[in-house]
Structures are given as structure tokens and as C-alpha cells.
Amino acid sequence: MTDHVEELLSAYIDHELTEEEAHRVRDHIKTCESCRETLYSLQHVRDQLHDAYEKVEVPASLEQAVMASIAVLERKTGVANGFGIWLAGVISLIVMGATAALMAPILIAIAKFLYKLAGIGIKIWQTVPIVVGAIPYFTVILYGATIILIIVSVGLLLRLRFTGSYDRRELL
Amino acid sequence: MDQELNQLIYKAKRGDQQASAALVRKYQGSVFRQAYAMVGDRMEAEDIAQDAFVKAFYAIKKLDNEYAFTSWLSRIVSNACYDHLKKASRRKNVPLLDHERKASRESPIERSQTRMTIRQALQKLSPDHREIIILRDVQGYTYNEIADILNIPVGTVKSRISIARRTLKEELTRGEESD
User: Fold this and answer.
1) Where are the domains of chain B?
2) Quick one: which of A146, A164, B47, B111 has the most CB atoms within 10 Å?
């Protein structure tokens, strides 16, 4: 008997062989005493190991100890989170302050520019009546222009109304 | 997986303390057994089990599939055992296999000669072989489940289990011969 199956015996007792391999082992151990004995001793080892730990007593304090450790961990995590939020707030304030300090010269320059721009606008506004007053017959020209504008507007409106009626008829 | 267990895991993921406690009660035997078989010392196994549960509940929100909880927990225990063994190997002055010390910490029921022998033999395996034979023979996982837990091919699982069993058999035979 040369074709021993020792390397398959362990998987055989665990029912982890293919059907073909298991068949080969079954056939072999019928006639090979050496492999059959190895098979029995491996089964014995497996059973002994299983029995040795099957009824191991679990320490009574384990559950309590685990839950206490989890509680401590959660407290630490909670404290860490609270501290994190507080720290983030402080950092944000510092960043905002630093940004404002760095931006101050630019902001002041922009404010000064806007102030000057407003001054120019006011001066222009104050100049308008003087310029208008200096134009001769300004009031007469203004009234005339207004009347012409009204006449032109009325004419355009009438024309628009007439064109609209024509279009509707065409559509009908 | 039954609906009740699925519900417990779902609640524990949302920070429900009672659900977490119920899961500890349900799995403490399995977790402690795995750790005890791996390190061979009750007090150390208790520390590992506690550490593994804390790690598990800290990371449970990241668990995508509730159905994979059992194997996920076994993976955490396995990693915790390895961490412990690494630390122990750094402390070279403390021998890992102090059987007298271990025997004194075992309960009277567990102190039978046969069981001591298989436990001693188990501690003589390499950590990789010990871990895999524990997952198979103590925890009862299939080869595919073990491959998933340890993230190794099924072929490797098969060969490691085979080597581990044969080494255990040799150690036990040697023990009998020396008696």
C-alpha cells in the first residue's frame, strides 16, 4: 500500500473534502491499517480538544467588567467631543480675529475711497442747479420739450392700437 | 441568525447599553473560550475577552453586515490574542508556558489530567496553528468561515489544520510515552 491519504484525513473528519476525495479516503482506509489508525487518533485529538474547552467556566465578573469599561470609554469619548466643540469655537474666534486684523488696512482704504466717492457725488448734485440756472430760457425749453414728448407719445400709442386691431382681423 | 439576535446587534450599533449587555451575556462564553485556549491562562484570557468586547462595541457602528457579527467578533478576539502574545514575547523574562501557574488558576472541575495534557499540547503549537485549530475544534467554524475570519485561502486553512492536528497528536503521544 503506497498511495496513503494522510494529508486528507484531517479534512475528512471535518467533512471538508470533495465527494471524490472522501470516496478515495473511504476506499483507502478499508484496507490500510496505518491510515485507519491515524484517522482514529486524529478524531480522538479533535474530540479531546473540543471537550477540554466546551465546559470552561466563564469568569462571573466578565460581563460587569466589560460594561464598566464601555461606560468609561463612552464618558471619555463624550468629554473629548465636548472639549472638541469648545476648542473648535475658540479656534474659529481666533481665526476670525486674525483675519480681521490682517484685513484692517485694506478695509480702511476701501472705506476712505467710498467716502471720497460720496463727496464727489454730493458736489456734482450741488452743481446741477447752478448749471441749469445759467442756461437762458431753460424753463421755456423744458416746457416745450415736455409738450413735444407728450404729443409724440400719444401719437405712437394711437398707432399701436390701430396696428393691433389690424393684426387681430387678419388672424380671424 | 435569529431575528432577536439581529435586533440586539442593530440596537447595540445605535448605542443601546442593554442590547450591548445582552450581547456580552450571549457571547462571553465563546469569546472567553477562544482567548483561554489561545493563551492558556484564565486571568489573561479574561483581560483579552474584556479588551475584545470593548473594541467590538467601539467599532460596531462600522459593522456593515449584522449577519457577520459572530465571525467579526472572533476576528477581533483573534487579533487581541495576537497583540497579547506579542506583548508577552517582548517580556522575555516571563515564560509563556508556566503550567504550574496556569494550573493554580484553573477551577477544580477543569483540573483533570487528560484535559491538562491536551491543553499543554495545544500551547506547544505555533500561534498560527493554535489559532486555527481553536477556531475549528473549539469554536466549530467551517473551513470557509475560518478563511474569512483570518483572511487566508481555504487551502491554507486545510493544510494548517492538518499540521496542527498531527502536531497535537505527536505531542500527546510524546506525553504518554514520557509518563
Assistant:
1) 1-100, 112-179
2) B47
Nearest to B118 among A49, A55, A58 (CB): A49
Q: Tell me the average confidence (pLDDT) per consecutive run of 10 residues in chain A, 172 residues long.
A: 83 96 95 94 95 91 89 72 72 84 87 91 85 79 91 90 53 38
Note whether B32 contacts A56, CB cutoff 8 Å: yes
Q: Which three cell numbers stand for residue B164?
A: 496542527
Query: How many separate helices (H) and strands (E) can be counted in chain A?
Result: 5, 0
Angle between helices B113-123 and B154-178 (to 10 degrees): 130
Q: Count of CB contacts below 8 A, A vs B?
A: 102
Look up the ipTM and state it: 0.82
Give the domain B112-179 fold: Arc Repressor Mutant, subunit A (1.10.10)
Phi, psi for B134 (deg, rounded to 5): -70, -45
Range list of β-strands (E), B25-169:
none
Burial class (CB in 10 A: 0-12, 13-18, 19+), B159: middle
Point out the residue among B21, B37, B162 whose CB comes nearest to the CB of A10.
Answer: B162
Instruction: Identify the closest residue of chain B to A46 by CA–CA distance.
Output: B137
Q: Looking up cell 456593515, which residue turns up?
A: B64
Q: Which residue has the cell 479656534?
A: A91
Domain B1-100 = CATH 1.10.1740.10: yes
